[in-house]
């Protein structure tokens, strides 16, 4: 069956997450049901580069979808967007997948952005897209603390209790913290992340940014490998899946 | 009665506009009702620098509010945000107003941004914040056309039929069009605008950007002063009130 790659944007707010679940509507279900009309009435099977949690957004999620009907990528993109209405899921681009390509297993790099609105007043325009932290955050000290987490480590201290990965060894390539006016932006990149790793790292860095913990604390937590000690798991709504990297590239249309 | 200046952010989607109306909830009503508890139970009278239409957003609307209770600007900001819940209106800053100051009549410059999402796929994350135009837009030719509208002119061609201004003479100081990835951003500034002027100018420039009209067309419309000939009134949801300028400045807290 022909496989396509999709570049997908979604607002995570109304969904139980990427993954299909009995408990509610998922992004996966929206796409698979939209694909059914192009697949002989049967939901078109999909897999994503990163399984985002409930409430997490995506600007550049990459999804594989297998569709019986032989369509051009442009027609597939338009048809999925038509049938996916009115849900806030949009197929921005589509491509024929290379032979043997998997959105999940061929992916060699994933990038996320976490947005914190750091001011006294509650968000209005950015409600649902940011974590609102009222106390003043020192972005420079957060950035310094973050640099001590880069490289290959056992990230058990920042993993969810429910994380199903076999081991917690991961290589963190980027964890930058920067202030832009009222916002603190955290950008991170790795080949792969553990469940809740980004949000746990952000929650921990915020404790440092508020001055409640020293700059060395995140690294001490990392070395201790105890997942009960890290800062709070930062709320899902501040997190956006930005991109997935593939060595061979994709011919996006 | 003490007068304060407020710097206000709002999502225009759920409102009938800035101005209080019998037909539904306005931003003005949210603020005045929130102020009632600080004003002896009576709604606290307000006036805005710019009366935005239904669906138009604001990042930097400036509002005057008269409150009987003598509060610090910080306390007023926090109290209005508390009592204004859960509406997407946020008082970002507050200041004591200078003697004789009026949010509307002291204002010497107003700035807006209009966002167009220019791609085939419908918006997901930016739904309600952009005008979705599918055909490819040439931002450079739009920008060139826009420059011929700068300066002092009779803007009758770009005014709403319902516009109540005495005359249509306005001085347009800035009308820049720029592409950023999938978005076309239009930024404009003037001492004041006519009703629907920004959205009518944007709708007209889009006709040029799509190649349906020549680059000279917006200026020809301007010179013709016939308000039935301009391009469509661009949708409210793409428009954001960015700032209001005052010669004396304000001591924001």
From TrEMBL, chains A, B:
EC identifiers of the protein: 5.4.99.12
Pfam families in UniProt: PseudoU_synth_1 (PF01416)
Catalytic residues (positions): 53 (nucleophile)
Reaction it catalyzes: uridine(38/39/40) in tRNA = pseudouridine(38/39/40) in tRNA
Keywords: Isomerase, tRNA processing
Entry annotated with the keyword Isomerase: yes
Residue positions binding substrate: 112
Start and end residues of each Pseudouridine synthase I TruA alpha/beta domain: 8-105, 145-247
Gene3D superfamilies (UniProt xref): Pseudouridine synthase I, catalytic domain, C-terminal subdomain, Pseudouridine synthase I, catalytic domain, N-terminal subdomain
Source taxon at top rank: Bacteria
GO molecular-function terms, A-Z: tRNA pseudouridine(38-40) synthase activity
Enzyme class, UniProt record, top EC level: isomerase
PANTHER family the UniProt entry points to: PSEUDOURIDYLATE SYNTHASE (PTHR11142), TRNA PSEUDOURIDINE SYNTHASE-LIKE 1 (PTHR11142:SF0)
Family statement drawn from the similarity comment of this UniProt entry: Belongs to the tRNA pseudouridine synthase TruA family.
Quaternary structure (record): Homodimer.
The protein's role, per its UniProt record: Formation of pseudouridine at positions 38, 39 and 40 in the anticodon stem and loop of transfer RNAs.
Protein name, per record: tRNA pseudouridine synthase A
Underlying gene: truA
